[in-house]
Each structure stands twice: as structure tokens, then as C-alpha cells.
Design goal:
The structure holds three protein chains of three kinds.
Chain A: E1 2-4, H1 16-19, H2 22-42, H3 45-75, H4 85-116, H5 119-124, H6 130-158, H7 167-190, H8 198-212, H9 225-233, H10 235-248, H11 254-284
Helix pairs in contact in A: 2-6, 3-4, 3-6, 4-6, 4-7, 4-10, 6-7, 6-11, 7-10, 7-11, 10-11
Chain B: H1 2-8, E1 13-24, E2 27-38, E3 42-46, H2 53-60, E4 68-73, H3 82-86, E5 89-92, H4 104-114, H5 119-132, H6 148-159, E6 166-170, H7 178-193, E7 197-201, H8 205-211, E8 214-219, E9 222-227, H9 229-236, E10 240-245, H10 251-257, E11 264-267, E12 272-276, H11 279-288, E13 295-300, H12 303-311, E14 314-316
Parallel strand pairs in B: 3-7, 3-8, 5-6, 6-7
Antiparallel strand pairs in B: 1-2, 1-4, 8-9, 10-12, 10-13, 11-12
Helix pairs in contact in B: 4-5, 9-12
Chain C: H1 9-17, H2 32-43, H3 47-51, H4 55-67, H5 85-117, H6 119-124, H7 130-158, H8 170-189, H9 195-211, H10 223-231, H11 233-246, H12 252-279
Helix pairs in contact in C: 2-7, 4-5, 5-7, 5-8, 5-11, 7-8, 7-12, 8-11, 8-12, 11-12
The chains are: A mainly alpha, B alpha/beta, C mainly alpha.
Chain lengths: 285, 317, 281
């Protein structure tokens, strides 16, 4: 491209006063942020779908069927929770997919927005507010979460691990877990000044143990009592237990089901409130 | 001042390029240039973005292989003896590539160790360099905590850790505030006085005039002109320049009537430039014609005028 | 201060010494300096991140070895003697953590240094050569791998999961495995341009982890799949380490070791060529 000082230039000019209606950003700003995030994600749609379908298939084949056959050959069929090991595993894998899908879209984009590319600051220099960025990012993350869980469900359906009737309720349960956890993680990410391996630590000491010790691969009662608290506080367990009850009728008392729902929603409320505060104070700096 | 230094310098060639060429596929970044840099000289490379300056610098730094012609640095061939040549060079790249995982003094230590210098030597050297760069108080800071000017000074100090024969500076002061620039110029001038050969690229004409004994103006991979700053001004511009404005609508129409005034006339959308020995005289002539400029300015001709004349006012991006 | 000074002679001497030797254009005999840089950087990094690198396989061991292990009986070693499920998967997790550690250091860390830190630009503007950088960076990955292997072995030996004294050799074996993965990983990373592409590395490693006889013997697969898995490096690594920790030695283990030697040589050659192409064009 070449620019010449002597070149004639013409620019139409209406003026911001006529051109821009401030009410539009005030009402729809969060959607603009979400749109921006989704466009960004769309560039990697192939990766997202490949991971969305690939990872669950691999886990299912290896753990669900491979380890499942070891369990069945040791204890006979339907030994755990009176269903096949694969059926037992399915709601837990879905909860994990929901959490992971939403998580990926709140942690890295937030680091990018505040630290690496500082895109949040440029958003904030238009009419968009910190709260709107929080909502926009969560909307985009939930889109990804729902998509990922749904793809996972298709895999599970193909393997006969879930019935088609349970698709909507498992989708709702897993997405709620993803929503609660990612809202908190969004706030946490916004509080980080510099990566410095914080996410590696979170992955190592929070995400992995949460996945492993939340009754994912075996009932939580078969863990020693001093480890069970990991499950009690993790959205992974609440979603898993709820999913098992609502998909194949694992016996879970109604009051406990209510606690499962309640805890995930409380997490979401805490997360959003905290995130709003973090975003507003950090943008105002 | 620059001329004297040049005469003092011995004629020992530090860098000799003959028909030096660099192609990236079909694109010719550097197109058969010839130049020599002698010991103790301060040599400037000027040119718009994309002229081939940085590519030339990278070839001199022995980190980019030429695709044609010949290049001898310190008597060696960079395509084959990269590590040997780089052992004697100091490099200050366009963008600071300080090691951000390390502290200020560790940056100097580790960089010196890359050259195989002993820790004992480096301990003393680091003190000298920190003082030279005025970063003594920041020795234990992480590099992210430094301001732009401090980072730049640290990068230069790092480039000096092996006491190089040639120091390569790619746009050393771009993006710095005036104070930071002046501190840097002062430091670079001291190095020059110590006899370090400097090769500098820059976009700032005042910087080129301050620091360089000899300049090479590049455009589209070729050399457009070469000489000392004063020689270039003399050859490619007049002593003074008169800038007159008649309002953006009128400039073009007025220009026709100004023919014959001054050695050279340049019409821009916002103003007209008249190159002449004496700008005042031209202004008088214009007023005699009954024309009244909105504003007028008489100034000394600068390297910037030379630069724009040689490389044009078209911005290539 | 005097800048033109005789002390700089040492730098010159080193460069001169290598003049004319084979590989003078890519190697200056100083990969150890890259390790020094690593230690300096480590000092001011988050210690916990580095120190806790071996906990992930320990979690896997707890969750699978003991958790699922309660529901699994009748595991046997290669000779048909009964072993616990935890004893069966512990060596596989050691091999996997060697792989993960090596790949993490040689991919994510290298990727960061290449694209954001510009560390290699700095190194290669000195008299360092590309082979110095590759060897140094890979050795750094190995040191870390070694530390993790020792940490993990200490934990699992304490749990009584290493029945054989040959298990001591599992530590150097893990380093060999890490070396192989790091050499290839660094070369592959040099082709990758963004985070999303980096995730594809994970996509290759996850199936290796899940299917290389980590959690159950290969015998449950049809034969052609078994052949395919056996060609994969992780299976080679797991077989080598499992043989050592269970004390079942076999000539095939020599083959597994040679597999990694080949991977190391090929990987180093490939990585050096790539670095030269990228930074010294």
C-alpha cells in the first residue's frame, strides 16, 4: 500500500452526535462484547469441534470401555450404582466438559484483555462498561460450554452411555456447573497481574483434583472420609450427582438435589458480583 | 566536528559490502549495495520503512544470510563464521529483547555468559555497565518494571558486555521521550569517542546529524546517496527553505505564479516549499507579486529535506 | 571505564578455538550457559509451579490406583504373578509424567521464549550457535524431568509400589524418555504460530496417554491396533519403565531404549536445522 501526502482524500462526516446513539451501547453493550468473543472463537471452530468430539471419545474408549471392562470382569456387570460403568461415568464426564468448556473461555481471554493485548481497555474506551464485558464474556463462554457439552452428549449417545431423553436435563446440569465455576474463575483471572504460572497452579491443585476426587470415576462414598470434602465443595460433584439422579435415577434425596442446584447457583452469583467489582476497579485504574 | 573524527580514524575496514543482496523469495529486500565502514567511524543508515535498513543490519549482525554479493565483517564471512563474528559484535535490536524472566543485572550476566566470558570478569563489568546506563538502583528489578528509556539503556549496556569492536544500533531512540533520547545520545557519543565503531539506523534526522560521521540513504533496497550530513545537505538541498501557506484551496493555483522563484519549488496540499540560499529574499519576491501568504517561515535546510527529496513524500506501507 | 580492553580476549579465544571445526557455524560449545540462564530465571519465578510438577501423576495414582483399584482385582505382571492395580499403573504414570514434563518445557516454554520473550533472538545475536541453544534448552527440560522423576519415585516407593530393586533404574529411564520427547517437541514447536495450534500437541499426547497400556494391558485391543500403539513412543517408554519397576527384564527393553536414542538424535538434528532456518536466515 502506498500513501502520498499529495493524494486527494475525501471523508464523509456525519458527526458522533448524530451517528451514535448512546442508548444502544447501554442496552446491548454486553452482546457486542459477546459477539467479539464469538467471532474470535469462530476462527478456531475446527479445533473447538475436534476437541469437543475428540477428547470425550478418547476418554470414553479408554476409561469408560477399557477400565470399565476391568471393573466388570472383577465385580461382574452393573456393580457400581446398579448400572454399567459407562452409564455411571457419563454424567461426570459431561459435568467436566461443561466446566472445562466454559473455563477456557474465561481465563485466557481475560489475561489477553487485561495483560497481553489490553483489549478490555480499548473496549472500555468506547461506551462499553466493565459489567458489560463481564456479561459478554460469560455469554460467549456459555455458548462454547453448551456446544461442547452437546457434542459430548452426541458421543455418549453413540456409545450408548446415555439415553436421548436425558439430553436436555444433562445439558442444563452440566452448563450450570460450568456457569458457576467459570463465573468465579472469571473474577479470579481478572485479579491476576501477571500469569507467572498461576494458571498452572490452579490447574494442578484445583481443576485436576476436582476432576479426580469428585466421585467422577467411583462413588464418593468409597473415598476415605477425609478426602470427601473435596467433592462436597466442588461443582463437579454437585453436577455429577445431580446428573446421575436425573438421567438414570440414581437414588439422591430431593433435599440433596436442591442443595446441588443451590450451590452451583450461589457460586454463579458470587462469581458475577466479584467479577463485576474486579473489572470495574481494574479498568478504572 | 564529524569530519575531524573521520580524518583521525585509520582506514582499516571493519565492514565491507560489495553487491550485497538479500532476497526473500521473489522480493528483493537489499539490492546489490556497496559500502565500507572503517574503524572508529559512526555510520548511519537512513531510509523509509521497508528500505532494507533492518535487513542490512541483520546481515551485518551475522544473523541473516545474504543471498548474493559479498560481505566481509572483521575479515570474516558471516555466512560461514557466524558465531566467530558475533563474538565481537554488540547488537541493539529495534525492539528490546531483554530477557523478561531475569532481573536487570542477571540480564547482563547471562548475556555475557553467552559470549563465554568468565563470571569474575562479568561481576566487575556489570558494575561498570550499570553505572554507564545509570541503572545502578534498578539492578534487582525485573525488566518489565523499567521505563522505555531504561530498557533501551539496558539493551545498549547489554550490547557492550563483550566490549565489541562494532556496535549495531537499530533505531536506538524510537519511542523515547526527549530527555531519554538526550541521555542516550550522550552515552553513544562517549562510546564513539572511545573508538567503538557504530552502525546506526534511525528515522530521526536530528539524531543522524548528532551521531553520524557518514550517512547512507537507502530506498527500495538501493543506496540513494552517501556522505557526511553536511555534504548531503549541500548536495541535495539549499541552505534555507521558505515555507508559505495560502490555505489548502489556494496553494495549487498560487503555485503557478511562483515559477522562477528559488532554486526549487515543491507544492504540497497544505503548503508550498521554496528551496533557496536566502529564504527572506524569496519572501520579498512573493510579496512583490502581490501575494499574501497566510503564514510564512524561513528555516535552515535540514537532513529531513534531503531525505524527503531522495526518498519522496510517498509513504510506503 | 575502558571498553577496549584485553579482558574480552576470552570471548575471542573461545570462538577462535572452534574455528574450522565441524559444526562451527551452529555450535560454540556452550549449551551449559542456557542452563545457567534457566537457574537465574528459576530464582525469580514462582517456585511452587516448578516444585509441584510431580503432583499431577500422584493425583492420578490416588484416583485410579487406589480409587478405581478397589473395584479391580486380578491384575498380573508379565510373568503371571499377581500385582496390585496401583503397582501396574505407577510406572506408566512415571513415563507419562516424563513425557508431559519434557513436552511442557520444550513446547509451551519454548513457544513463549520464541514468540513473546524473544530470548533466542538475544542468544543468537551473541556467539552462541543454534545447536548450543537446542542442546541447552533440551537439557533444561531434562533436569526438570529428572527432578520430577525423583519426586514421583520417592512417593511411589514410599507407598510400596516398586517391588523390584531394578526400579532404581526407572529414574534414568524416565530421563531418557524425557530426552526423546523434548528433542522432537522443540522442533515441532518451531512450526507453531499460536496458542490454538499449540493445543494440537495436547491432542496427540492425550490418546497416547490413554491408550498406551497405561491403565490396562494392550491385550484387550485387536492385533492391528496393538501394532500401531507399540509404534508410539509412549508405549515404548511405559514398557521400558514398567519392566524395571516390576523387575521383569527382557531384551526387548534394549530395543525400547534404542528407540529413544534414535528419537533424540533425529530430534536434535531437526531442531537445530529449524532454529537455524528461523533465526539465522
Amino acid at each position: 500500500m502506498s500513501l502520498d501526502v499529495r493524494a486527494e482524500t475525501q471523508m464523509t462526516w456525519v458527526g458522533a452526535k448524530k451517528l451514535v446513539d448512546p442508548q444502544v451501547s447501554i442496552r446491548y453493550g454486553a452482546f457486542f462484547v459477546a459477539e467479539n468473543r464469538l467471532r474470535n472463537m469462530a476462527k478456531w471452530w475446527l479445533s473447538i469441534i475436534a476437541f469437543g468430539l475428540g477428547n470425550p471419545s478418547l476418554y470414553l474408549l479408554s476409561i469408560g470401555i477399557g477400565v470399565g471392562s476391568l471393573v466388570d470382569s472383577s465385580l461382574g456387570a452393573n456393580a457400581i450404582d446398579h448400572v454399567s460403568y459407562l452409564t455411571f461415568l457419563a454424567p461426570a464426564l459431561l459435568a467436566s466438559a461443561g466446566i472445562q468448556g466454559a473455563l477456557d473461555e474465561v481465563t485466557w481471554p481475560t489475561m489477553e484483555g487485561f495483560v497481553w493485548d489490553r483489549t478490555f481497555f480499548s473496549m472500555n474506551s468506547t461506551a462499553i462498561t466493565g459489567k458489560q464485558i463481564v456479561s459478554g464474556i460469560l455469554m460467549a463462554a456459555m455458548t462454547r460450554c453448551l456446544l461442547q457439552v452437546f457434542l459430548y452428549e452426541l458421543c455418549l449417545l453413540a456409545f450408548g452411555a446415555i439415553s436421548w431423553q436425558s439430553i436436555p436435563i444433562l445439558l442444563l446440569v452440566s452448563a450450570t456447573a460450568g456457569f458457576g465455576f467459570s463465573a468465579v474463575m472469571l473474577a479470579f483471572s481478572a485479579s491476576i497481574k501477571d500469569d507467572d504460572g498461576v494458571f498452572a497452579l490452579v490447574g494442578r491443585f484445583i481443576i485436576t483434583p476436582m476432576f479426580m476426587f469428585s466421585g467422577t470415576f467411583y462413588p464418593i462414598d468409597s473415598m476415605p472420609i477425609y478426602l470427601r470434602w473435596i467433592g462436597w465443595i466442588s461443582p463437579q460433584w454437585h453436577a455429577t450427582n445431580l446428573g446421575r439422579a436425573l438421567s438414570y435415577g440414581s437414588p439422591v434425596e430431593p433435599w440433596l438435589q436442591a442443595i446441588h442446584w443451590g450451590l452451583m447457583l450461589v457460586l454463579a452469583v458470587i462469581g458475577i458480583t466479584w467479577a463485576n467489582r474486579m473489572f470495574e476497579s481494574r479498568l478504572a485504574k | 566536528m564529524p569530519k575531524e573524527v573521520r580524518k583521525e580514524a585509520s582506514a582499516e575496514a571493519m565492514i565491507t559490502a560489495t553487491g550485497l543482496t538479500k532476497k526473500y523469495g521473489d522480493f528483493v529486500a537489499v539490492d546489490g549495495v556497496n559500502f565500507t565502514v572503517t574503524r572508529g567511524e559512526s555510520f548511519g543508515l537512513l531510509g523509509p520503512n521497508g528500505a532494507g535498513k533492518s535487513t542490512t543490519m541483520k546481515m551485518i549482525a551475522a544473523t541473516s544470510q545474504r543471498t548474493g554479493g559479498n560481505l566481509v565483517i572483521l575479515g570474516k564471512d558471516p555466512n560461514r563464521q557466524g558465531p566467530e563474528i558475533r563474538a565481537h559484535l554488540g547488537v541493539v535490536p529495534q525492539q528490546d529483547n531483554l530477557d523478561r524472566e531475569l532481573k536487570v543485572w542477571e540480564n547482563l550476566m547471562v548475556y555475557g555468559r553467552y559470549f563465554g566470558l568468565s563470571r569474575k570478569f562479568l561481576k566487575g563489568k556489570i558494575e561498570e555497565l550499570l553505572e554507564f546506563a545509570q541503572l545502578g538502583e534498578k539492578r534487582n528489578s525485573k525488566t518489565e518494571e523499567l521505563s522505555g528509556g531504561m530498557k533501551r539503556r539496558l539493551t545498549i549496556a547489554r550490547g557492550l558486555v563483550n566490549e565489541p569492536e562494532i556496535l549495531l544500533l537499530d533505531e536506538p531512540t524510537t519511542g523515547l521521550d526527549p530527555q531519554a533520547r538526550h541521555i542516550l545520545w550522550d552515552r553513544l557519543f562517549r562510546l564513539k569517542e572511545q573508538g567503538v565503531t557504530l552502525v546506526i539506523t534511525t528515522h530521526y534526522m536530528d539524531e543522524a546529524e548528532q551521531l553520524c560521521d557518514r550517512l547512507m540513504v537507502m530506498d527500495k533496497g538501493k543506496i540513494m546517496a552517501e556522505g557526511s550530513p553536511a555534504e548531503l545537505i549541500k548536495k541535495y538541498s539549499s541552505r534555507e527553505v521558505l515555507e508559505v501557506r495560502f490555505g489548502s484551496e489556494n496553494n495549487a493555483s498560487v503555485a503557478g505564479r511562483l515559477k522562477g522563484i528559488g532554486e526549487r519549488l515543491e507544492v504540497l496540499p497544505d503548503r508550498i516549499l521554496i528551496y533557496e540560499e536566502s529564504g527572506e529574499k524569496c519572501l520579498e519576491q512573493i510579496i512583490k507579486l502581490g501575494l499574501e501568504p497566510v503564514t510564512s517561515l524561513v528555516r535552515r535546510s535540514s537532513l529531513e529535506d534531503v531525505f524527503l527529496r531522495l526518498t519522496g513524500r510517498t509513504l510506503v506501507e | 571505564m575502558s571498553l577496549i580492553n584485553a579482558a574480552v580476549d576470552s570471548a575471542i579465544a573461545i570462538a577462535e578455538k572452534r574455528k574450522g571445526k565441524l559444526g562451527a557455524g551452529v555450535y560454540s560449545g556452550r549449551p551449559n550457559v542456557v542452563l545457567e540462564r534457566g537457574f537465574y530465571a528459576l530464582k525469580s519465578s514462582t517456585w511452587m509451579v516448578v516444585a509441584s510438577g510431580f503432583v499431577e501423576p500422584v493425583f492420578y495414582l490416588l484416583a485410579f490406583g487406589y480409587g478405581i483399584g478397589q473395584f479391580i482385582s486380578g491384575t498380573t505382571d508379565g510373568n503371571g504373578s499377581p500385582i496390585t492395580y496401583a503397582q501396574f499403573i505407577a510406572p506408566a504414570l512415571l513415563a507419562t509424567s516424563a513425557m508431559n514434563g519434557a513436552i511442557y518445557d520444550s513446547t509451551w516454554n519454548v513457544f513463549f521464549k520464541m514468540h513473546f520473550g524473544k530470548v533466542y533472538n538475544g542468544m543468537l545475536s551473541t556467539s552462541m550457535g543454534t545447536l548450543d541453544v537446542a542442546l541447552g534448552e533440551i537439557s533444561w527440560a531434562l533436569l526438570r524431568g529428572l527432578a520430577y522423576a525423583i519426586g514421583f519415585m520417592a512417593v511411589v516407593t514410599g507407598m510400596g509400589l516398586i517391588p523390584s530393586i531394578w526400579g532404581l533404574l526407572a529414574i534414568p529411564a524416565a530421563v531418557l524418555v524425557a530426552f526423546g520427547f523434548a528433542s522432537v517437541g522443540m522442533g515441532v514447536t518451531s512450526y507453531l504460530k499460536n496458542h490454538q495450534q499449540m493445543q494440537w500437541i495436547q491432542f496427540v499426547m492425550l490418546p497416547m496417554f490413554l491408550f498406551s497400556g497405561t491403565f490396562y494391558p494392550l491385550s484387550i485391543y485387536p492385533e492391528f491396533i496393538q501394532w500401531f500403539i507399540q509404534a508410539m513412543p509412549l508405549w515404548q517408554g511405559i514398557s521400558l519403565i514398567r519392566g524395571l519397576t516390576l523387575g521383569i527384564l527382557d531384551w526387548a527393553m534394549l530395543g525400547h531404549a534404542l528407540y529413544f536414542v534414535a528419537m533424540i538424535i533425529g530430534g536434535l538434528f531437526f531442531t537445530t536445522r529449524r532454529l537455524t532456518a528461523l533465526f539465522l536466515r
